[in-house]
From TrEMBL:
Belongs to the major facilitator superfamily. EmrB family. This is Multidrug efflux MFS transporter. Its main location: membrane. The chain crosses the membrane at residues 12-33, 53-73, 80-107, 113-133, 140-161, 167-188, 200-219, 231-248, 268-292, 333-352, 358-380, 461-480. Residues 15-485 form the Major facilitator superfamily (MFS) profile domain. It comes from Cytobacillus stercorigallinarum.
């Protein structure tokens, strides 16, 4: 798949359809597992810190492999990359589905991650080279509709399966679909690619793996272990140093594994910063609403999934419309509108009470998702539109990698804020209750009530902080401009070098 597809009369819809179905089941599998974690803990006899590796390990594999996809996309054909990715994902699904000990389940999960890490950047790159700038919004909107359907149905479907079947059914349900997609890809994908004489710099791969992997692991662990834990600050420091060396090495190489030259294009840089900030704010809803609904209100996982369903469906349904509006009006007005809605609704989430109604939460969450649907795709597409075709693989890899990093940072930050506030509020409430009772010991019922109230205060404060994060993104959006493809700096340099030569030849 090359940039030549931009100039073709008809985009490769068959190729895109197969890629999208593959990406859809990878996304669906990721959202299915979260609600099943308590069942896995009980069945395999592991604690919370251990079972979290199913999520952390998945994130680490993504952080290691996604930066390398820029090289892989330039080196290999879409057919080869897709078949390898789907094969790894399918094998991992089978391994996880038949796992009877946690280590085997974790291996299967990481095999799945190695496939899904390649699928998303490959699909985004094909989208960029297959559609001209003026039609790219609509194409990305359809892409968003398909991928947003996964988190829309994932929690509800997972809740129903876990309540009625064994958790392994989550993997058995995906396995036959993955096999069908793999076979369709093997039969139908016929794209050709010219061989490129580029080699992978293994030192860059090592530095990238240690750098992004260390930062992701450190921030992911901070949410559970606290910022003072050795494994947290040590891995973040080692990761940051490795990333610094990695960036310096990439800037000195003629064919870098991941080209940081994408940041010389201002709209791409701005869009990357905005999406990272929005990602951090977005995680407040994904983390805190389920904690409030299940732990404080006592609502079952299946009913909690049903409460989140309308918001996810609205976000999915809005994707095609947002894409068409983007093509017509650009991303700025959409992002301003969406972030305003998102900021206001996030603030109202910071005012939850012990008896806030389920309908109220569902409506507020749906409004928040409606606002978010007008932000992520328009902002990221506007940034990618400014890149010359040579930078597409690097831009998509950079976007996906930094989304992983910002997600880990947002998770760690918000969990830490919630925990610290909850602990402080718990102490204050306990002391106040003791003073009212004239000393003595707290009853078990009083301690339970204090625990729920302090958790609520922690959730509300985390949402309040998330509101300010949304405000930062809203301010940054006002600096957006509608992007047009920039001229490739390398081509401009070559033109300047050949121009004097041409003038000399013409004078002769």
């Amino acid at each position: 798949m090359t940039a030549n597809h931009q100039n073709s009369n008809k985009p490769p819809y068959g190729l895109l359809a197969i890629l999208m179905v593959g990406a859809f089941i990878a996304f669906l599998n990721n959202t299915l597992l979260n609600i099943a974690l308590p069942s896995i803990m009980e069945d395999l006899n592991v604690d919370t810190a251990t079972v979290q590796w199913l999520t952390t390990g998945y994130m680490l594999v993504n952080g290691v492999l996604i930066p390398a996809t820029a090289f892989l996309i330039r080196k290999y054909s879409v057919r080869m990359l897709f078949l390898f990715a789907m094969l790894m994902f399918t094998l991992g699904t089978f391994v996880a589905g038949f796992a009877d000990i946690f280590s085997i389940l974790l291996i299967g999960r990481m095999m799945q991650a190695s496939g899904s890490a390649i699928l998303m950047p490959v699909l985004m790159n094909v989208m960029l080279v297959s559609f001209p700038v003026e039609k790219r919004g609509s194409a990305m909107g359809l892409f968003g509709l398909i991928l947003m359907a996964a988190p829309a149905i994932g929690p509800t479907l997972s809740g129903w399966i876990v309540e009625n079947y064994d958790w392994r059914m989550l993997f058995h349900f995906i396995s036959p679909i993955a096999i069908i997609v793999l076979l369709l890809g093997f039969i139908w994908l016929k794209d050709k690619k010219e061989k490129q004489a580029i080699k992978l710099d293994f030192l860059s791969l090592l530095l990238s793996s240690i750098g992004f992997g260390g930062v992701l692991y450190g921030f992911s662990s901070a949410g559970n272990d606290g910022w003072g834990a050795t494994n947290v600050y040590l891995t973040i420091i080692v990761g940051a140093i490795s990333l610094f060396i990695f960036i310096i090495r990439q800037n000195k190489q003629k064919e870098p594994m991941l080209n940081f030259g994408v940041f010389q294009f201002p709209m791409f840089t701005l869009s990357t910063i905005i999406t990272m900030v929005v990602n951090m704010a977005m995680f407040s809803g994904m983390l805190l609403i389920p904690i409030y609904v299940q732990n404080i209100r006592g609502i079952s996982p299946f009913d909690a999934g049903l409460m989140m369903l309308p918001g996810a469906l609205v976000m999915a349904a809005m994707s095609p419309l947002t894409g068409k509006l983007f093509d017509r009006f650009g991303g700025k007005i959409l992002a301003i509108t969406g972030l305003t809605i998102m900021t206001i609704s996030t603030y109202f989430f910071s005012r939850l009470e012990m008896d806030t109604g389920a309908i109220h939460i569902m409506i507020l969450h749906t409004i928040r998702m409606f606002g978010m649907s007008m932000v992520m795709m328009p902002v990221s597409t506007n940034g990618l539109n400014q890149l010359p075709p040579r930078f597409y693989p690097h831009g998509t890899a950079m976007n996906n990698t930094l989304n992983q990093v910002s997600g880990a940072i947002g998770t760690a930050l918000l969990i830490t804020i919630m925990s610290n506030k909850a602990n402080a509020a718990g102490e204050d409430l306990a002391n106040a209750t003791l003073r009212e009772n004239g000393g003595g010991e707290l009853s078990q019922e009083a301690m339970l009530q204090i625990g729920l109230q302090s958790t609520l205060e922690g959730i509300n404060f985390a949402f309040f902080v998330s509101t300010f994060i949304s405000v930062i993104a809203l301010i940054l959006v006002f600096f957006m401009k509608r992007s047009v493809p920039a001229k490739d700096p390398e081509e401009q340099t070559e033109a300047l070098e050949t121009e004097p030569l041409n003038e000399t030849e013409s004078s002769k």
